[in-house]
């Protein structure tokens, strides 16, 4: 219902801003819980090794917190990738919008639906595979499960 | 979902992040709403006396918007009911001993979990017939909102299926073994021992998905269902389609949904703490 005036920011940019805020809000919560999940004993150990507060943060807390966060970040990124289809509403020419135009032109709704499903399943599978690879790469022996 | 937590702990799954909300979010929202209204009100009073102000327009169309919100709630109830029935069945099928059933239910679950809501909405809207023949006689036109309800229930079904599967897997193996030693059949073990324990574990994520489902229902307005957001847009058009209406109207909708979801979020958080599984 917008678009009464000439837009200063393009629909694509607005979609990025809106989805960025939306996904970021979840990420804040994920990072917070990740930082909290770093065991106290580890921090105490680094303190006993005479690491300063900043050094502890830089070399101990952040790397551990990132690894703890990674599964949640993966699921958030995947759900965000799916949410991008909502940019359809503000007529950003993404997959759903483009295919909608195709099936409006030539009446081939079922085929286009199938393409859409396959496309999103492939995107999600690729993202998931990539991030799981990263997770395995970053896994620390003796940490976590 | 209900996994055993190690000493180091896991970060909370992303969907739990919904429950980071607290009372001051509502307060800020309300404040923004009041300020936006005050600004628009002051501006439009000077501009012209013939046009209605944003506040007057909103109060004029309030019953219309609330009626739409009622449809939102109805859609969320029905979709959740469908999703729960189908999802629980699918979740149990995922731990079936028959390989074919397991693979098939896993495929369905992951298909609906990994497809965007909008795509599922489009699929159901376009591929379901416009009218149905009831008892082989009269033809009944299926209303759009019923199709949308069914569409919303599908992704939630997939997620509930995963919740149920996770809950069943989180029951210690000892429970299965002791049931077997008491000569329970697999079916009896499931009905009398495993599933009752799963209910407690699944309720917090189940309510979380209800909240997410309710927040997703405005998507139906894209396809012309007359729910709260669609009605608010229609009201804005009727009020002259002035751009200064956008902010107050959308903030009003935000407040409306917040007021509904917030108590659910609080309640879920309480239940989550109460039912926290410690091993």
Provide the β-strand percentage band of chain A: under 5%
Number of strands of chain A: 0
Q: How much is the average pLDDT of chain B? A: 80
Major β-sheet of chain B, in short?
A: 2 strands, antiparallel
The best one-word shape of chain A is elongated
Structural class of chain A: mainly alpha
**Fold-level CATH name of chain A:** MetI-like fold
What about the largest sheet of chain A?
Answer: none
User: Which oligomeric state applies?
Assistant: heterodimer
* H/E element order of chain A: HHHHH
- Total of DSSP H or I helical runs spanning 4+ residues of chain B: 9
Report the CATH topology name of chain B: MetI-like fold
Tell me what you see in this structure.
The complex is a heterodimer of chains A (145) and B (279). Chain A is built from five helices and no strands. Chain A is mostly helical and 145 residues long. The mean pLDDT of chain A is 85. Chain B has 279 residues and is mainly alpha-helical. Chain B has a single domain, classed as MetI-like fold (Orthogonal Bundle). Chain B has a two-stranded antiparallel ribbon. In chain B, helix 7 runs antiparallel to helix 9. The longest helix of chain B is centred in the N-terminal third of the chain and has 40 residues. The radius of gyration of chain B is 23 Å and the shape is flat. The two termini of chain B are 15 Å apart. The chains are: A mainly alpha (145), B mainly alpha (279). At the A-B interface, helix 1, helix 3, helix 4 and helix 5 of A face helix 3, helix 4 and helix 8 of B.
């Amino acid at each position: 219902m917008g678009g009464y005036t000439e837009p200063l920011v393009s629909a694509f940019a607005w979609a990025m801003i809106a989805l960025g805020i939306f996904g970021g809000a979840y990420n804040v919560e994920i990072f917070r819980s990740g930082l909290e999940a770093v065991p106290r004993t580890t921090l105490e150990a680094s303190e006993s090794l005479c690491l300063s507060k900043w050094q502890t943060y830089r070399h101990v807390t952040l790397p551990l917190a990132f690894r703890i966060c990674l599964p949640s970040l993966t699921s958030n990124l995947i759900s965000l990738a799916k949410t991008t289809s909502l940019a359809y509403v503000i007529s950003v020419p993404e997959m759903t919008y483009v295919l909608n135009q195709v099936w409006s032109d030539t009446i081939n709704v079922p085929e286009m639906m199938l393409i859409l499903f396959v496309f999103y399943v492939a995107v999600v599978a690729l993202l998931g595979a990539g991030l799981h690879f990263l997770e395995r790469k970053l896994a620390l022996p003796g940490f976590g499960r | 979902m209900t996994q055993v937590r190690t000493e180091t702990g896991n970060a909370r799954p992303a969907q739990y992040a919904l429950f980071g909300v607290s009372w001051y979010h509502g307060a800020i929202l309300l404040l923004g709403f009041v300020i936006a209204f005050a600004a628009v009100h002051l501006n439009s009073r000077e501009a012209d006396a013939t046009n209605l102000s944003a506040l007057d327009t909103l109060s004029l169309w309030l019953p219309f918007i609330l009626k739409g919100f009622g449809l939102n709630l109805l859609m969320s109830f029905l979709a959740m009911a469908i999703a729960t029935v189908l999802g629980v069945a699918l979740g149990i099928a995922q731990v079936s001993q028959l390989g074919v059933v397991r693979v098939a239910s896993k495929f369905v679950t992951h298909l609906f979990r990994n497809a965007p809501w909008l795509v599922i909405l489009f699929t159901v809207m376009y591929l379901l017939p416009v009218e149905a023949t009831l008892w082989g006689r009269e033809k009944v036109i299926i209303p759009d909102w019923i199709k949308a309800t069914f569409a919303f229930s599908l992704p939630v079904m997939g997620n509930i299926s995963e919740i149920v599967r996770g809950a069943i897997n989180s029951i210690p193996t000892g429970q299965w073994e002791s049931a077997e030693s008491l000569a329970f059949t697999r079916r009896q073990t499931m009905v009398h021992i495993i599933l009752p324990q799963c209910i407690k574990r699944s309720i917090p994520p189940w309510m979380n998905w209800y909240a997410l489902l309710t927040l997703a229902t405005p998507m139906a307005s894209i396809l012309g269902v007359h729910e709260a957001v669609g009605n608010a847009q229609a009201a804005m058009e009727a009020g002259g389609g002035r751009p200064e209406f956008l902010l107050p109207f959308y903030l009003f909708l935000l407040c409306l949904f917040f007021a509904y979801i917030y108590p659910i979020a609080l309640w879920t958080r309480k239940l989550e703490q109460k039912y926290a599984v410690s091993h």
